[in-house]
Amino acid sequence: MNDWTPWPEEFARRYREAGYWTGETFGDFLAARAEAFADRIAVVDGDRRWTYRELDERASAMAHGFLARGIEPGDRVVVQLPNVAEYTSVVFGLFRAGALPVFALPPHRSAEISAFCEITGAVAYVIADSSGGFDFRALASEVKEATALEHVFVLGDPGEHTALADVPAAGGDLPEVRSGDVAFLQLSGGSTGIPKLIPRTHDDYLYSVRESAVICELGEDTVYLVALPVAHNFPMSSPGILGVLHAGGRIVLAPAPSPDVVFPLIAREGVTSTGVVPPIALQWMNSPARAEHDLSSLRVIQVGGAKFVPEAARRVRAELGCALQQVFGMAEGLVNYTRFDDPDEVVVTSQGRPISPDDEIRIVDGDGAEVPPGEVGELLTRGPYTIRGYYRADAHNLVAFTPDGFYRTGDLVRRLPTGHLVVEGRAKDQINRGGEKIAAEEIENHLLAHPAVHDAAVVGIPDDYLGERTCAFVIATGEPPTGPALRAFLRGRGLAAYKIPDRIQLVDAFPHTGVGKTSRRDLRRALADTFRKAQ
Ligand code: OOB
């Protein structure tokens, strides 16, 4: 079994020759930034301000400390931190130690964290003591008991674990890290029962970061607000914190995306840009608190992660006083941006065009044949920063990628003559709940573990605010369980809160699918259709 699928040599050579893959590692990247922007402020977290030099020094001290404690180059380390400055020193520290961060998101609980640890064989887990009212130390103890985890590093009060504050150490040479190797593992939104992990190399990711910084016109005067969870691909690299560091700008970490937290921060720090999912953009536009804060420093708000409908997109300039940039990206690679010189109509009605001239786009019908120009089909893509396979997932890779290496995005799109893509829907069994992705099969599997559940089908139902919410259709055996009981059951299985179905509907049978098929995939589609028609 292969851990990951490298690009075929002819492609790798082409990407190097084109200057996309430069041989730079994340460790080099930070060193070069620290050299160029030494005393400028890189990171703002509350009252703390770290310069580029300080971030560089902290990252190296972390790297030495992790190595001294037995983390080895190539080891996987699950990182689950809130939006705090230490996220940057930990992650760059791991990069410099040659270890691979596995980026968990704050809502993940034991079901997800155990799965990440099992798939990757992670030896360490980095958390905050508690955040958002949840104590991560107990979760860590539970996962450590059941997996190969050897170390738990805790920001704050460590309890029975190791204090992150005790990790930094001095040291000499750091291990050699190769730019063509995997640098970290991102999470896929997924559409299967088991989470999928995305291996990204230094070369491929840094290419997307540098180009994103150019497209988004970042510079030393950029002040970027991290309103989404910092470990997500969007605030990480589109252009995100890495794009901002590349350009010598400043990152401002927000502990939450709500207007009461974010608006004063924008005013205080002179924030110039930020990236959010559609429900947050709507919340900001609808907030009366807008009038109480000076938001005039904002030049652009990026919206992505889920479809931003044109009616909402049209309101941005008038209500937030800044430009809109739509971002249609995926942790697997491909990222599309509307450009600042695009006509307004293109910016409000399309989801942008790819970063690279070598992003190959195919839009195909159900048989894999390309659709005529302008028609809707599934988006397949291949390119210098799009993966060729998931991590340790050989069997799944056979269906998720074409034999010639195109990633099947599962997104239904059409292409405008300008090359911009318009997202029209989805052909994957995933629910996009305001940017948070939920694999239907994963939730169904958890429901099926309940003794009174005979069968379950999870579908997305339209929602004005989130785009979609989740509905679980359940056929019971014997005494039907109540909705609250099923929800409590799912929470008890350690599932992230955003994955708990918003609605649970008990039914006697699932609709027939016409040809008498019984696969849950067909049922899901049929139920989703029935629901849409009933609305
Ligand atoms: C971003 O990344 P992921 O990996 O959480 O989710 C990717 C999926 C896409 O395949 C698509 O289904 C959906 O999220 N999506 C959008 C969208 N942006 C993402 N659907 C409609 N309109 C959009 N603008 O979500 C992500 C990664 C990097 C940058 C931005 C978003």
Short summary:
It is built from 18 helices and 27 strands. The model has no long low-confidence stretch (mean pLDDT 96).
Write the layout of secondary structure elements.
Elements: H1 9-17, H2 26-37, E1 41-45, E2 48-51, H3 52-68, E3 76-80, H4 86-97, E4 100-103, H5 110-120, E5 124-128, E6 130-131, E7 134-135, H6 136-146, E8 151-155, E9 162-163, E10 182-187, E11 197-201, H7 202-215, E12 223-226, H8 233-237, H9 240-247, E13 250-253, H10 259-269, E14 273-276, H11 278-286, E15 300-304, H12 310-313, H13 316-320, E16 323-330, E17 333-337, H14 344-349, E18 353-354, E19 360-364, E20 377-382, H15 394-400, E21 407-415, E22 421-426, E23 430-433, E24 436-439, H16 440-448, E25 453-463, E26 467-476, H17 483-492, E27 503-506, H18 520-534
Parallel strand pairs: 1-13, 3-4, 3-5, 5-8, 8-9, 12-13, 12-14, 14-15, 15-16, 26-27
Antiparallel strand pairs: 1-2, 6-7, 10-11, 16-17, 17-18, 19-20, 20-21, 21-22, 23-24, 25-26
Helix pairs in contact: 2-3, 3-4, 5-6, 7-9
The protein binds 5'-O-[(R)-(benzoyloxy)(hydroxy)phosphoryl]adenosine (OOB).
5'-O-[(R)-(benzoyloxy)(hydroxy)phosphoryl]adenosine (OOB) is lined by residues 189, 233-234, 238, 304-307, 326-331, 335, 351, 409, 411, 423, 426, 432, 437.
